[in-house]
Design brief:
Blueprint: H1 2-32, E1 36-38, E2 41-43, E3 49-50, E4 58-59, H2 61-73, H3 75-78, H4 91-94, H5 100-109, E5 111-115, E6 118-122, H6 129-132, H7 135-146, E7 157-158, H8 163-173
Parallel strand pairs: 4-7
Antiparallel strand pairs: 1-2, 2-3, 5-6
Helix pairs in contact: 2-7
Protein backbone atom coordinates (compact mmCIF):
# COMPACT_ATOMS: atom_id res chain seq x y z
CA UNK A 1 0.00 0.00 0.00
CA UNK A 2 2.86 2.42 0.74
CA UNK A 3 4.26 1.86 -2.76
CA UNK A 4 0.89 2.73 -4.30
CA UNK A 5 0.64 5.99 -2.32
CA UNK A 6 4.21 6.95 -3.27
CA UNK A 7 3.50 6.26 -6.93
CA UNK A 8 0.31 8.33 -6.73
CA UNK A 9 2.24 11.24 -5.13
CA UNK A 10 4.95 11.03 -7.80
CA UNK A 11 2.34 10.97 -10.53
CA UNK A 12 0.56 13.96 -9.02
CA UNK A 13 3.79 15.90 -8.49
CA UNK A 14 4.80 15.19 -12.08
CA UNK A 15 1.47 16.55 -13.28
CA UNK A 16 1.93 19.65 -11.12
CA UNK A 17 5.51 20.37 -12.21
CA UNK A 18 5.39 19.41 -15.88
CA UNK A 19 3.63 22.61 -17.04
CA UNK A 20 6.14 24.72 -15.10
CA UNK A 21 9.05 22.97 -16.80
CA UNK A 22 7.49 23.43 -20.23
CA UNK A 23 6.88 27.12 -19.52
CA UNK A 24 10.50 27.54 -18.36
CA UNK A 25 11.80 25.94 -21.56
CA UNK A 26 9.54 28.09 -23.74
CA UNK A 27 10.52 31.25 -21.84
CA UNK A 28 14.19 30.34 -22.14
CA UNK A 29 13.97 29.73 -25.89
CA UNK A 30 12.12 33.01 -26.35
CA UNK A 31 14.67 34.91 -24.21
CA UNK A 32 17.57 33.35 -26.16
CA UNK A 33 16.03 34.23 -29.53
CA UNK A 34 18.36 36.07 -31.89
CA UNK A 35 17.11 39.58 -32.67
CA UNK A 36 20.27 41.10 -34.14
CA UNK A 37 23.01 39.88 -36.48
CA UNK A 38 26.42 41.54 -36.60
CA UNK A 39 28.56 39.97 -39.31
CA UNK A 40 27.28 36.45 -38.61
CA UNK A 41 27.26 36.78 -34.81
CA UNK A 42 23.81 36.85 -33.26
CA UNK A 43 22.56 38.63 -30.14
CA UNK A 44 19.42 38.41 -28.02
CA UNK A 45 17.26 41.38 -26.96
CA UNK A 46 19.54 41.99 -23.95
CA UNK A 47 22.67 42.15 -26.13
CA UNK A 48 24.04 38.74 -25.09
CA UNK A 49 25.57 36.49 -27.74
CA UNK A 50 23.19 33.76 -28.82
CA UNK A 51 22.62 31.07 -31.40
CA UNK A 52 20.71 31.06 -34.66
CA UNK A 53 19.58 27.63 -35.81
CA UNK A 54 17.64 27.29 -39.05
CA UNK A 55 14.67 24.91 -39.44
CA UNK A 56 16.85 22.56 -41.53
CA UNK A 57 19.35 22.25 -38.64
CA UNK A 58 21.95 24.66 -40.01
CA UNK A 59 23.68 26.37 -37.09
CA UNK A 60 25.47 29.70 -37.09
CA UNK A 61 29.26 29.60 -37.18
CA UNK A 62 29.65 30.46 -33.48
CA UNK A 63 27.43 27.57 -32.34
CA UNK A 64 29.46 25.20 -34.50
CA UNK A 65 32.74 26.65 -33.26
CA UNK A 66 31.48 26.38 -29.68
CA UNK A 67 30.68 22.71 -30.23
CA UNK A 68 34.21 22.10 -31.52
CA UNK A 69 35.89 24.11 -28.73
CA UNK A 70 33.75 22.50 -26.04
CA UNK A 71 34.71 19.03 -27.21
CA UNK A 72 38.40 19.92 -27.36
CA UNK A 73 38.71 21.46 -23.88
CA UNK A 74 35.59 21.05 -21.72
CA UNK A 75 34.03 17.65 -22.33
CA UNK A 76 36.74 15.79 -20.43
CA UNK A 77 35.24 17.07 -17.17
CA UNK A 78 31.73 18.20 -18.11
CA UNK A 79 30.83 15.25 -20.32
CA UNK A 80 29.89 15.08 -23.99
CA UNK A 81 27.48 17.78 -25.17
CA UNK A 82 27.48 19.42 -21.72
CA UNK A 83 25.47 16.64 -20.04
CA UNK A 84 27.83 16.38 -17.06
CA UNK A 85 29.80 13.55 -15.53
CA UNK A 86 30.63 12.13 -12.13
CA UNK A 87 33.47 14.66 -12.08
CA UNK A 88 31.77 17.95 -13.06
CA UNK A 89 28.22 19.30 -13.39
CA UNK A 90 26.02 19.32 -16.47
CA UNK A 91 26.51 22.69 -18.13
CA UNK A 92 23.25 22.26 -20.02
CA UNK A 93 21.62 22.59 -16.58
CA UNK A 94 23.92 25.34 -15.28
CA UNK A 95 23.30 27.55 -18.32
CA UNK A 96 19.54 27.47 -17.71
CA UNK A 97 20.05 29.93 -14.86
CA UNK A 98 23.56 31.32 -15.38
CA UNK A 99 23.91 34.70 -17.06
CA UNK A 100 26.55 35.60 -19.62
CA UNK A 101 28.75 37.62 -17.24
CA UNK A 102 28.83 34.85 -14.64
CA UNK A 103 29.76 32.30 -17.32
CA UNK A 104 32.67 34.47 -18.53
CA UNK A 105 33.87 35.04 -14.98
CA UNK A 106 33.83 31.36 -14.02
CA UNK A 107 35.59 30.24 -17.20
CA UNK A 108 38.25 32.96 -16.93
CA UNK A 109 38.84 32.87 -13.16
CA UNK A 110 37.81 29.36 -12.19
CA UNK A 111 35.72 28.37 -9.20
CA UNK A 112 36.00 26.26 -6.08
CA UNK A 113 33.01 24.71 -4.32
CA UNK A 114 33.57 23.02 -0.99
CA UNK A 115 30.84 21.43 1.06
CA UNK A 116 29.33 18.20 2.20
CA UNK A 117 32.72 16.51 2.33
CA UNK A 118 33.23 17.14 -1.36
CA UNK A 119 35.44 19.59 -3.21
CA UNK A 120 34.83 20.66 -6.83
CA UNK A 121 37.36 22.83 -8.60
CA UNK A 122 36.89 24.47 -11.97
CA UNK A 123 40.35 25.59 -13.14
CA UNK A 124 40.85 29.09 -14.53
CA UNK A 125 41.11 29.25 -18.31
CA UNK A 126 41.76 32.99 -18.57
CA UNK A 127 45.28 32.41 -19.83
CA UNK A 128 44.46 29.60 -22.26
CA UNK A 129 43.99 31.12 -25.72
CA UNK A 130 42.28 27.97 -26.97
CA UNK A 131 39.51 28.71 -24.48
CA UNK A 132 39.39 32.46 -23.84
CA UNK A 133 39.52 33.41 -27.52
CA UNK A 134 36.35 31.34 -27.96
CA UNK A 135 34.41 32.03 -24.76
CA UNK A 136 31.49 33.54 -26.68
CA UNK A 137 31.42 30.47 -28.94
CA UNK A 138 31.34 28.18 -25.90
CA UNK A 139 28.58 30.23 -24.29
CA UNK A 140 26.51 30.25 -27.48
CA UNK A 141 26.82 26.48 -27.97
CA UNK A 142 25.99 25.68 -24.34
CA UNK A 143 23.11 28.15 -24.33
CA UNK A 144 21.61 26.44 -27.38
CA UNK A 145 22.00 23.08 -25.64
CA UNK A 146 20.54 24.41 -22.36
CA UNK A 147 17.29 25.60 -23.94
CA UNK A 148 16.96 22.51 -26.11
CA UNK A 149 17.55 24.30 -29.42
CA UNK A 150 20.61 22.19 -30.31
CA UNK A 151 20.50 18.41 -30.10
CA UNK A 152 23.35 16.25 -28.88
CA UNK A 153 26.12 15.53 -31.33
CA UNK A 154 27.95 17.41 -34.03
CA UNK A 155 25.73 19.93 -35.83
CA UNK A 156 24.98 18.50 -39.30
CA UNK A 157 25.22 21.85 -41.13
CA UNK A 158 26.84 25.19 -40.39
CA UNK A 159 27.00 28.69 -41.78
CA UNK A 160 30.31 29.76 -43.26
CA UNK A 161 32.82 31.48 -41.00
CA UNK A 162 32.42 35.23 -41.41
CA UNK A 163 35.29 37.57 -42.14
CA UNK A 164 34.69 39.20 -38.75
CA UNK A 165 35.11 35.82 -37.03
CA UNK A 166 38.33 35.19 -38.95
CA UNK A 167 39.71 38.59 -37.97
CA UNK A 168 38.77 38.23 -34.30
CA UNK A 169 40.39 34.79 -34.16
CA UNK A 170 43.57 36.04 -35.82
CA UNK A 171 43.74 39.02 -33.46
CA UNK A 172 43.18 36.95 -30.33
CA UNK A 173 45.39 34.01 -31.26
CA UNK A 174 48.18 36.34 -32.39
CA UNK A 175 48.44 34.98 -35.90
Amino acid sequence: MKFGKALLLLTLSGAVFAPTQITFAQDSIEKAKAVRDEDGKYYDADGNPTFNIQPDGTVDWYTFSGYRRYHSDCHVCHGPDGVGSSYAPALVDSLKTMDYGTFLSIVAEGRKNVGGGKENVMPAFGDNKNVYCYMDDLYIYLRARAVGAAPRGRPPKKEDKSQAAKEQEKSCMGG
